[in-house]
Write a structure and sequence with these properties.
Blueprint: H1 3-21, H2 31-41, E1 49-51, H3 65-72, H4 79-91, H5 96-122, H6 124-136, H7 138-144, H8 150-170, H9 173-189, H10 193-208, H11 212-227, H12 232-245, H13 254-271, H14 281-299, H15 305-329, H16 345-353, H17 362-385, H18 391-401, E2 407-411, H19 415-420, E3 429-431, H20 438-446, E4 451-456, H21 463-475, E5 478-484, E6 487-493, E7 503-504, E8 511-514, E9 522-524, E10 530-538, E11 542-549, E12 554-557, E13 559-561, E14 579-587, E15 597-606, E16 611-613, E17 618-623, H22 625-629, E18 637-643, E19 649-651, E20 655-664, E21 670-675, E22 678-683, E23 686-689, H23 691-696, H24 702-706, E24 707-715, E25 722-731, E26 737-749
Parallel strand pairs: 2-3, 2-4, 9-17, 19-26
Antiparallel strand pairs: 1-3, 4-6, 5-6, 5-7, 8-10, 10-14, 11-12, 11-15, 13-14, 15-16, 15-17, 18-20, 20-24, 21-22, 21-25, 23-24, 25-26
Helix pairs in contact: 1-5, 1-6, 2-3, 2-4, 3-4, 5-6, 5-7, 5-8, 5-16, 6-16, 7-17, 8-9, 8-10, 9-11, 10-11, 10-15, 14-16, 15-16
Length: 764
């Protein structure tokens, strides 16, 4: 091919490269990318409490490929992150540019694959048009600028389609071998590539019909693609079915969400993230009609009827499969538009084929204008208006507007890694969650500090934000809020370093405490109400006290006691000028769902009639009876410890949460927590609803698998520094003890004693 004939293709690739490098590092790396980077370096995303940025895997140099591969395979198919490990080590840098560059290059390589695919099917003009559509697609530009597995996986999918159509039409061995290799690479890169392989298989059936010999021969490369996965075949399937069945996308959206996501999925290839902003119907419908018409007319440009059906099936079947699975499994996240990227190439090729013809006509010009306007609007929105959470600016605000001694409290915990990516100071970071651990966090985060930062992302509806601000308002009289996109960033401080935006904190709640076994506040169905004992300290005269179950907001009267109950542990003296009042009452959790946890607050009515909430809440569980009694039949049991992660570092003296799931068809009366073989806790706090466990273990009684979650707080004051071994045992209703789950090794460290160095214990 002459240079003149190659020039248009070089121009298309140049446009694609420019758009993928333009403003490549403008947006901060966000939490999904952070996880992939950390795994690619060979570290787990764990250890969120009392750490420095420098101590976390996101800031450490990458480990060797073997260690990285072992970590990666625990989470995702391995190719993309393993490639990133090799790239970082070869490049010698983990800067934002260095990390994003290979994915931009995968995006350009993907464009080349689409050009070849369109050229094979429809000719030169279609190849130029289809390549230009992918090059300018805001959707593809977005994922070519993200450190994730979508760019690599979609690249291999595009190339698998090149050799898929070549093999079906030629039957040559080299084309079949290339199809097998690229199909396997796609599966190794993202589990949703399995839907592409499935659709290609259905397409083969349509293409060859009843010609069984030809059908079997054509299926060989697809079978080899799956076979090349080897032991990772189970990894890919586990991720695919686990993702499809475990709903982390909120309450099932029903028909309305179906419609919204259908429109968003169909529009994303053309206008990108602009589709999520709810464009007006007068824009949506004409664009969808135009795209559908171009797709149908483009298919008609091919003379072979079977091939037209083959392209249509590979375009529409994966999307139809996802929407059917959405309805059957009631899983919102199945309809996230990002997955459509794997199914968009035959769509772009068919639309590109619309421009095939001896000469450009008015309809071609009109279609080009519509697509140019749509994609131009999508690119402008992505580059200049669409913003991710700006962790870079949040880190800069903390570094320049506070004190080096400030602590940083972060919600949700893994956001610690996103902030740490850009925060180079020595400040301590404390990741907090819904667990009842705020006491330990506050004691360590606020001791002898001039201020504390709070960083909240994805905190909508969480009671933790209010609880933290309520506590900090009592310890620091001033607060500064910083306007960061999608991040609630504030500094609570003593006023020594003030800004024009400094405001006075006036919402100070009284100190209180619950001395009921706070992490074992468990009510069995049909059992007597839980006896709650507690105290409150205040300088104000109080008229009434009551417990309030968050949610129903049902007040439960309390009885004030003149002295601490006999079984109450001793408490330090109250601060000068305040009085401690003790109370007790009966807590009945019959009003909440079985398997649900309820947050209990103390409502205090002052003498002036105002009602205020005390600082500390109590987290209680209403246990489903099947968690204790089990079900008749053969004994089936399994368990897993989610936290702490293996190799986690825990500050000496802090409390930490042990959580996970455990089920036994014979029932679990209590869980026994042992450290180094010594029992440290025995608790009935088991039976928290975990529907995700039931979706994975479909051969287990659904109630047994569902009500299997556990969570317990363990004290570390008596543990020596160094490694420790955590094990769990179950006690059956008959009193039999059985070890469960694999042990966890964690490290007790003293950060104060080793300040300036990373936490003790080996890096993972």
């Amino acid at each position: 091919m002459t240079l003149k004939r190659l020039a248009p293709f070089a121009f298309v690739l140049g446009v694609g490269l420019f758009l993928r490098l333009y403003l490549l590092t403008d947006k901060s790396i966000w939490i999904d990318e952070i996880q992939h980077i950390t795994w690619a370096k060979g570290y787990d995303v764990s250890g969120f409490l009392d750490v420095r940025s420098q101590d976390l895997g996101i800031r450490r140099p990458p480990r060797d490929a073997g260690n990285a591969l072992r970590e990666i395979r625990r989470h995702v198919p391995a190719f993309s992150d393993l490639m990133l490990n090799l790239w970082m080590r070869a490049w010698g840098s983990d800067s934002d540019f260095a990390l994003k560059l290979p994915f931009a290059l995968f995006g350009v390589l993907c464009i080349l694959g689409v050009i070849l695919l369109a050229h094979d099917l429809f000719g030169r003009r279609a190849a130029i048009a289809a390549g230009l559509l992918v090059a300018c697609s805001p959707f593809h530009v977005y994922y070519s600028q993200e450190v994730n597995h979508y760019a690599a996986a979609s690249c291999w999918v595009a190339w698998s389609y090149v050799f898929y159509f070549r093999f079906l039409r030629s039957g040559r061995f080299k084309h079949g071998a290339a199809l097998a290799v690229f199909g396997a690479l796609a599966l190794y890169s993202h589990y949703y590539s399995a839907l592409v392989v499935f659709s290609q298989g259905v397409g083969i059936i349509i293409y060859f019909g009843a010609r069984l010999k030809a059908l079997a021969r054509a299926a060989i490369p697809l079978v080899v693609s799956v076979a090349l996965l080897g032991v990772d075949f189970r990894v890919v399937l586990a991720h695919l079915f686990g993702h499809a069945s475990a709903n982390f996308g909120g309450e099932f959206g029903g028909a309305r969400f179906f419609y919204e996501r259908l429109v968003a999925n169909l529009l994303h290839p053309w206008i990108g993230e602009l589709a999520n902003s709810g464009p007006a119907l007068w824009i949506v419908l004409p664009l969808l009609v135009v795209v559908a018409a171009l797709f149908v007319l483009g298919l008609r440009a091919h003379e072979e009827r079977r091939l037209r059906w083959l392209i249509a099936v590979n375009t529409l079947l994966p999307l139809a499969f996802l929407f059917a699975a959405y309805g059957l499994m009631k899983n919102n996240q199945l309809l996230w538009p990002r997955y459509v990227i794997f199914f968009s190439f035959t769509l772009f090729v068919a639309v590109g084929a619309f421009f095939v013809g001896p000469a450009l006509r008015a309809r071609h010009v009109a279609a080009a204008v519509v697509l140019t306007i749509a994609m131009g609007a999508g690119l402008h929105h992505y580059y200049h208006r669409f913003k991710k959470r700006d962790w870079r600016s949040a880190a800069q605000a903390i570094a320049t507007n506070g004190d080096a001694r400030d602590a940083v409290i972060v919600f949700v915990p893994n956001v610690v890694y996103a902030l740490a990516r850009y925060l180079s100071t020595e400040q301590r970071l404390f990741g907090v969650s819904e667990e009842d651990l705020l006491n330990g966090v506050f004691d360590r985060a606020t001791a002898d500090r001039p201020g504390v930062w709070t960083v909240f992302a994805w905190a909508s509806g969480s009671p933790v934000l209010g609880a933290i601000r309520k506590r900090l308002a009592c310890q620091f009289p001033f607060r500064d809020d910083h306007g960061i996109h999608l991040i609630e960033l504030s500094r609570h401080h003593d006023g020594l370093r003030r800004t024009p935006t400094t405001q006075v904190n006036r919402d100070c709640s009284p100190r209180n405490g619950f001395v009921v076994a706070r992490s074992s506040c468990v009510m069995e169905t049909g059992a007597e109400p839980i006896r709650v004992v507690g105290w409150v300290e205040t300088a104000d005269r109080l008229s009434t006290l009551s417990l309030v179950i968050k949610g129903p907001e049902k007040p439960i009267p309390l009885v004030e006691t003149p002295a601490p109950p006999p079984d109450a542990p001793p408490q330090p003296d109250p601060p000068a000028g305040t009085t401690r009042r003790w109370f007790q009452g009966a807590l009945d959790l019959a009003g909440i769902a079985e398997g649900a946890a309820a947050r209990i607050s103390l409502a205090v009515r002052r003498s002036d009639g105002a009602v205020i909430e005390a600082r500390e809440d109590l987290l209680c569980l209403r246990r489903h009876p099947v968690a204790r009694t089990g079900v008749p039949g053969p004994l089936v049991a399994n368990a897993y410890i989610d936290a702490p992660g293996d190799g986690a570092n825990i500050e000496q003296g802090d409390r930490f949460v042990v959580s996970g799931w455990a089920f036994s068809s014979g029932g679990i009366s209590e869980l026994v927590y042992k450290i180094d073989g010594r029992e440290v806790r025995r608790s009935p706090r088991h039976g928290i609803a975990r529907p995700d466990v039931a979706t994975v273990f479909r051969d287990v009684n659904p109630s047994v698998a569902t009500y299997s979650g556990f969570s317990e707080v363990i004290e570390t004051a008596t543990l020596s520094q160094g490694p420790h071994r955590l094990t769990l045992e179950t006690i059956s209703p008959q009193g039999a003890t059985t070890p469960i789950a694999a042990p966890r090794i964690f490290h007790i460290v003293n950060f104060a004693a080793i300040k300036g160095r990373g936490p003790a214990g080996p890096a993972r």
